[in-house]
Amino acid sequence: NVSGALCISQAWPGMARTIYNDHKRFMETYLTPYPGFFFTGDGVYRTREGYYQLTGRLDDVINISGHRLGTAEVEDVLNHHVAVAESAVIGYPHEIKGEGKVLAFLPLKHLSKGVYAFVVLKDSGYMQETLAAELRELISKKIAKYAAPDYVQVT
Question: Which parts of the sequence belong to the AMP-binding enzyme C-terminal domain (predicted)?
Answer without folding.
Answer: 73-109, 114-154
